[in-house]
Specification:
The structure holds two protein chains of two kinds. Chain A is built from no helices and eleven strands. By secondary structure, chain A is mainly β. In chain A, strands 2, 4, 5, 6, 9, 10 and 11 form a seven-stranded mixed sheet that branches. In chain A, strands 1-3-8-7 form a four-stranded antiparallel sheet, with no helix packed on it. In chain A, strand 5 and strand 6 form a beta hairpin. Chain B has no helices and eleven strands. In chain B, strand 6 and strand 7 form a beta hairpin. Chain B starts with a strand and ends with a strand. The chains are: A mainly beta, B mainly beta.
Chain lengths: 113, 114
């Protein structure tokens, strides 16, 4: 079974630029999550999708972050404009929906200079 | 407000010995707890979980203990192996509509020396 795929793996941008990350979950997984992991901290949930609907986006900085999950499969997370404090690893995870066990992708390491 | 805390940033253990990783939580509404392992440049991998109706769950070399009254859980690895060297995160969730929402601790770096 293929795992969660993410791209790009690394991205370096200057502050005030925009950036987008892509995630392809495990086939058949209805629930998709985006996490932000700042160095030295645990992952923090940004947004949770159930199929293509948003379940929880309470910790998403909506003035600069946006996410969508078209057709209930792939998802993109966008930051516009980026700030220095957005430097982090952005993790995508998916689950079957009925269990808590989430399967994580390798993440995208974003550096904002 | 750090609802899940791992107060030991790192732990060093000799191969063959027991590794004990600790985690404390403050939210009494948490009813499901998980441990994840993370290698460098990879995403976290699910290791073991426990429901709040249990106080122990075992899977091979890994055992998780839950003390609800103390709001404390621990992960025991016996015997420890060099391949267990990784960052370990504990995580917690609530039932109902938040069942999938995980709150993670800061992580503990485990190093197992040959």
């Amino acid at each position: 079974e293929a795992g969660v795929a993410q791209s790009p793996r690394y991205k370096i941008i200057e502050k005030r630029q925009s950036v987008a990350f892509w995630c392809n979950p495990i086939s058949g997984h209805a629930t998709l999550y985006w996490y932000q992991q700042i160095l030295g901290q645990g992952p923090k949930l940004l947004i949770q999708f159930q199929n293509n609907g948003v379940v929880d986006d309470s910790q998403l900085p909506k003035d600069r972050f946006s996410a969508e999950r078209l057709k209930g499969v792939d998802s993109t997370l966008k930051i516009q404009p980026a700030k220095l404090e957005d430097s982090a690893v952005y993790l995508c995870a998916s689950s079957a929906g009925s269990t808590t066990e989430q399967y994580f992708g390798p993440g995208t390491r974003l550096t904002v200079t | 407000d750090q609802q899940v805390k791992q107060n030991s940033p790192s732990l060093s253990v000799q191969e063959g010995r027991i590794s004990i990783l600790n985690c404390d939580y403050t939210n009494s509404m948490f009813d499901y707890f998980l441990w994840y392992k993370k290698y460098p440049a990879e995403g976290p991998t699910f290791l073991i979980s426990i429901s709040s109706i249990k106080d122990k769950n075992e899977d091979g070399r890994f055992t998780v203990f839950l003390n609800k009254s103390a709001k404390h859980l621990s992960l025991h690895i016996v015997p420890s192996q060099p391949g267990d060297s990784a960052v370990y995160f504990c995580a917690a969730s609530q039932g109902g509509t938040s069942y999938g929402k995980l709150t993670f601790g800061q992580g503990t770096i485990l190093t197992v020396h040959p």
